[in-house]
Amino acid sequence: MGEGDTLWAPSILPHDVIGVLSQRPQPHFGRRMESKVSEGGLNVTLTIRLLMHGKEVGSIIGKKGETVKKMREESGARINISEGNCPERIVTITGPTDAIFKAFAMIAYKFEEDIINSMSNSPATSKPPVTLRLVVPASQCGSLIGKGGSKIKEIRESTGAQVQVAGDMLPNSTERAVTISGTPDAIIQCVKQICVVMLESPPKGATIPYRPKPASTPVIFAGGQAYTIQGQYAIPHPDLTKLHQLAMQQTPFPPLGQTNPAFPGLDASPPASTHELTIPNDLIGCIIGRQGTKINEIRQMSGAQIKIANATEGSSERQITITGSPANISLAQYLINARLTSEVTGMGAL
Q1: For residues 210-215, average pLDDT
Q2: φ/ψ (deg, to 5) at 50
Q3: Least confident of 20-24, 68-72, 114-118
Q4: Checking DSSP bridges between strand 88-96 and strand 162-169, what pairing results, if any?
Q5: Residue 260: per-residue pLDDT
Q6: Residue 12 in contact with residue 49, Cβ under 8 Å?
Q7: Buried b (16+ CB within 10 A) or exposed e, 147-160
């Protein structure tokens, strides 16, 4: 995902979809609904989640919140912006389809205006398109692509917008990014058609929504001190330093289990103890990290052995076993809790 990317995530509220399906006679459903949605006259409540970078959010909010206030009043849609503890922010737009499309149009035109303004200071001659990303449950992407790519081709041709569906799911979710680029008008028509597809093919099973991660602050250890990196500066971190020094004092320099030659048969390492933690399944990914990077980092920094039990059927939790000296275990627990806190804070912002 590039720095200037914007993710647009339409997700239809399940009870509204059920309501729509039960209210309309099935045989005429598709065609009649499509015409009504494109005219913005179908009174279905939709929720569209947009993921934006700080600069884009600033553009939507405007000075003293004037821009977002105007968008709310003129469109009639509810527009909520998540707390700013992440490099990306979530903007949630909820309302009847016509209100959603009005708000969406205002945002697309605002982004085009930003592109034009940025071009006045640049030598570029051709105007780049407005590019947005929708985040769509993976179970609906098949309907969006269509048999042999027929549906996505039809959307491209009828709207003039470029549409690409990502092959991989977004981290720790069951959603995929759908990139749309073109003129604001093309994008608005394209989103209307995608909303039709999503209403006609509700998500199957549970959807784990994509949630932006808070900016993680890297930790470095130097000269027995722990520092967190903030911008261009290393800030001393007293709590982590204490834990790190304790762990270093108690971690033996010979490899674990090697006997001390001065006392044959005695183990040089302090007695190892074991501590168990229980973590919800949906948070285990943030502790393991991509291809195990985070858990390996925690093992190296803490000096503890950490084992994560396999998921058991019917259980919503996973067991983590930490083995090592008391200081190793404390540091491992601290680092695991820091990962969980940053993940939950990001989720709490929604």
Answers
A1: 73
A2: -115, 135
A3: 20-24
A4: unpaired
A5: 44
A6: no
A7: eeeebbeebbeebe
- Say which residues have a Cβ less than 8 Å from residue 156's Cβ, sequence separation at least 6: 162, 163
Q: Which residue has the tokens 């509204």?
A: 16
Instruction: List, for residues 311-345, the tens digit of each pLDDT value.
Output: 877 778 888 899 988 878 888 888 888 787 777 65
Residue 83: is its pLDDT beyond 50?
yes
* 173, containing H or E segment: none
Listed in sequence order, the residues at least 6 apart from 81 whose beta carbon sits closer than 8 Å to its beta carbon are: 57, 60, 61, 68, 89, 90, 91, 92
Q: What's phi and psi for 81, nearest 5 deg? A: -120, 130
Sequence letter at residue 4? G
In a 13 Å sphere around the CA of 185, the CA atoms on its Cβ side amount to: 2
At residue 260, the 3 state secondary structure works out as coil
Task: Fill in the DSSP letter of residue 253.
Answer: S
Find residue 229's DSSP bridge partners: 234
For residue 219, the number of C-alpha atoms closer than 13 Å in the C-beta half-sphere is: 21
CB 42, CB 65: distance < 8 Å = no
Q: Which two tokens mark 309? A: 């039990």
Longest dimension (CA), the chain: 88
| CA–CA dist 315, 243 (Å, integer) | 33
This prediction has a pTM of: 0.52
- Is residue 121 scored above 90 in pLDDT? no
CB atoms within 10 A of CB 203: 18
First to last CA, the chain: 20
Q: Please report, as a single letter, which amino acid is at residue 120.
A: S
Closest-CA residue to 16 (of 45, 49, 48)? 45
Q: What pLDDT score was predicted for residue 249?
A: 57
Angle between helices 97-119 and 184-200 (to 10 degrees): 150
Show the CA angle centred on residue 28, arms to residues 27 and 32, nearest 5°: 160
DSSP state of 223: T
**Rounded-to-integer distance, Cα 324 and Cα 243, Å:** 14
Q: Which of 183, 189, 46, 192 is nearest to 109 (CA)?
A: 183
Percent of the chain whose pLDDT exceeds 90: 20
